[in-house]
Amino acid sequence: MITCGLCGQEFADLDRCPACAMAAGFGPNRQSPFASGTLWAMAGALAAIYAATLAVVVITR
Ligand SMILES: [Zn+2]
Q1: How confident is the model at residue 1 (pLDDT cuts 50, 70, 90)?
Q2: How much distance in Å is there from the Cα of 43 to the middle of ligand 1?
Q3: Model-level pTM greater than 0.90?
Q4: Count of CB atoms situated within 10 Å of the CB of 52
Q5: Do 13 and 6 meet the contact criterion of CB atoms below 8 Å apart?
Q6: What's the CA-to-centroid distance between 22 and ligand 1, angstroms?
Q7: 51 CA distance to ligand 1 middle (Å)
Q8: How remote is the CA of residue 36 from the centroid of ligand 1, in Å?
Q9: Could you tell me the distance, in angstroms and rounded to a whole number, from the CA of residue 57 to the centre of ligand 1?
Q10: Rounded-to-integer distance, Cα 43 and Cα 40, Å
Q11: What is the pLDDT of residue 20?
């Protein structure tokens, strides 16, 4: 159960509040958008871009 931030009504884990149709968004009972490895995938992509740029700089100077 999550509590609507606008009208305070509790409802099941839906996308929107059934009473006022406000989107739930972030909250204490919402799961993190960075769960299931998304954060590590972004960190890996950043490290790959860094390594590629470093290689280009080392080769071309
Ligand atoms: Zn509501």
Answers
A1: confident
A2: 36
A3: no
A4: 10
A5: no
A6: 6
A7: 47
A8: 28
A9: 54
A10: 5
A11: 85
CB 17 within 8 A of CB 11: yes
Neighbours of 45 (CB within 10 A): 10
Q: Compute the distance from residue 12 Cα to the ligand 1 centre, in Å.
A: 12
Q: Please give the distance, rounded to the nearest whole angstrom, from the Cα atom of residue 35 to the centre of ligand 1.
A: 26
SS in 3 state form for the chain?
CEECCCCCCEECCCCECCCCCCECCCCCCCCCCCCCCHHHHHHHHHHHHHHHHHHHHHHHC
Q: How far is the CA of 26 from the centre of ligand 1 (A)?
A: 14
pLDDT in tens, 8-56: 888 887 677 888 887 766 555 566 666 677 888 999 999 999 999 999 9
